[in-house]
Inverse folding.
């Protein structure tokens, strides 16, 4: 472990909530880069199925290849398909029967059923170099876009619909979010230390009280200059849904 100090003149006073956010964020980074973390690569000696098309045949031919144990290729296993909001089709290898499981399309409704919470897109988004800006900016809790990129800040409203005061912890829902601009490649929503981050918001809401929460993704300058459509994908443990925000 190494302790690195910046050039600030003093260490800021942090609330217990901010300390908890920093602890969770640091733990996630340590786990991500821990050499003991299980790899997503196929184990040595695994059978790899390759599909190719023979120009002299009528269709594709599948062949099984056993890698050389001394030169096992590194093959990335994609656990989350790019088009996660589309229907999932499964083909039975024996019968050839194709079945389809439709994705949910009710926004946050499926994920929040029975929680007493409602989350709705506010219809408002921002494109900025950093967030928050102006008087709301805090030098210790501000998100900056990397060089050549912009931040897309999507605003949502979370409401306590339970009829009584309740404690809210969005992090416990284990939801993941992606954003697609103009039908392009999905981008992960960033994990931040902001108090109103959609991934980690925690607080107490009175009955019928609403607060603003944000989902932030980094997009290119080109995408930022011409936003036609915004698709927002929500993934849970059992299903996913895609919302067209614009």
């Amino acid at each position: 472990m190494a302790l690195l100090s910046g050039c600030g003149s003093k260490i800021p006073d942090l609330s217990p909530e901010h300390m908890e956010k920093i602890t969770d964020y640091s733990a996630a980074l340590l786990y991500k880069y821990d050499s003991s973390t299980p790899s997503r690569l196929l184990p040595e000696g695994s059978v790899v199925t390759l599909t190719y098309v023979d120009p002299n045949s009528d269709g594709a031919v599948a062949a099984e290849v056993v890698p050389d144990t001394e030169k096992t290729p590194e093959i990335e296993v994609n656990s989350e398909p790019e088009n996660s909001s589309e229907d999932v089709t499964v083909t039975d290898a024996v019968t050839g029967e194709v079945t389809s499981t439709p994705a949910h399309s009710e926004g946050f409704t499926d994920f929040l059923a029975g929680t007493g919470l409602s989350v709705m897109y506010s219809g408002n988004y921002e494109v900025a170099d950093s967030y928050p800006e102006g008087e709301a900016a805090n030098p210790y809790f501000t998100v900056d876009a990397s060089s050549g990129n912009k931040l897309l800040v999507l605003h949502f409203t979370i409401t306590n619909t339970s009829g009584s005061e309740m404690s809210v912890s969005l992090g416990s829902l284990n939801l993941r979010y992606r954003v697609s601009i103009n039908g392009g490649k999905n981008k992960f929503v960033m994990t931040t230390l902001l108090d109103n981050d959609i991934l980690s918001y925690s607080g107490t809401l009175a009955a019928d009280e609403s607060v603003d929460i944000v989902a932030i993704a980094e997009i290119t300058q080109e995408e930022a200059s011409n936003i036609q459509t915004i698709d927002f994908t929500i993934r849970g443990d059992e299903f996913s849904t895609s919302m067209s925000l614009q």
